[in-house]
## 1
Amino acid sequence: TASVHYGDTVLAEGLEVELEENVGGPFTKSGPGTLMLMATNTWCGATIVKDGVLTAGTDGAIPPATRLVLDGGTIDLGGFDFSFAGISGSGGTVVGGTAKIAGEWVVDGAELATNRMMKSFTTVSGDVEIEPGSRMRITGFDELDGAKVYRILRMAQGTLSGVENLVCDLPHGWRLLRSASGLAISKVKSVTVIVR
């Protein structure tokens, strides 16, 4: 069951949308207005919020371990706990709870490289918590320039907690930079010490 809002105006309520269970591919919320999910859902792809607000109206409205892609929209967690397999996209807002990162978070190095001119790969306003046992895997390191720092996640507002829980498998010479304001990777610069 879904309801569609535009600002404070309810455009449609009680819409019944039938999808097959465990349907492949992402779920995308685009266009202005609010879409509220009022049932347990089972899509298997990413949860993509491009515009407007996607609101969880019940526990289970967003399937566990889906990747959250914020491309300009807002996800309202409705006070429920949801775990995501990473956050990506150009940025967006998390309200109504904490987006928890659990499991494997895959980051595409080619996407990082093409987004290099942006201040960050993903900018989030809201609360993000990294759960114990979470692992980040970055693919496509051959696309990255070792002289640059690549910001994976930047917290514009809100809190990032649990950064110490994140394990990241990086090639030799690369390191994960963690702070309460975000996550980045860079190549370790070698230092030459001359003793006279």
Note: The two ends are 75 Å apart (CA to CA).
## 2
Amino acid sequence: LLRSLAGLLRSSALMAYVSANGFAYSGILLFSAAAPQVIIGHLGFTASAFALLLALSTLGFMAGNAVSMRMVCGHGVDRTARLGTLSLLAGPALMIAATQAFPGAWAALILPQMLYTFGWGMVQPQMQAGALSTHPGRIGQASALIGFFQLAIAGLIVAIFSRLTDGLPFSLALGMATCGAVALVIAWSFVGRVKA
């Protein structure tokens, strides 16, 4: 088992999908972890209002999944995933601008977050499909690695973020932009471009 897992870890093709997926998910977990402090603590919304705002952001994920399902047939797994990463960077870039222009507005956080979750809805299914296709004989182990690294990368980023930032909207946007940018670079440079 360990030898087989070590072999998968040496697979550049698999690890490209795994790492791009992990950084893409990190923006989602970062928002989930930091948004209560920003929206309730900094902006002064109630917990009930925060729950409704957070629910709105899931609409982006559903829309991204629907678009991804249609695009993958014509563009393939890798290209669809790469195009989705553009939203992972555009959402936080818009959030940076919007939180500076409208510092107390909930829409400055939630609407750009919807754009990020739209990208995640496009990226996540394609990254998983691509990763599992690299080693069809070891799909179970590859799937376990995707899940492990997704949570490990995101957990590490959230831990670092919580220690280094001030909990303001701009910091959240900057952290998400970093996650989106790394996912984009990995997707466009390595996903589908390196051999197993």
Note: The two ends are 19 Å apart (CA to CA).
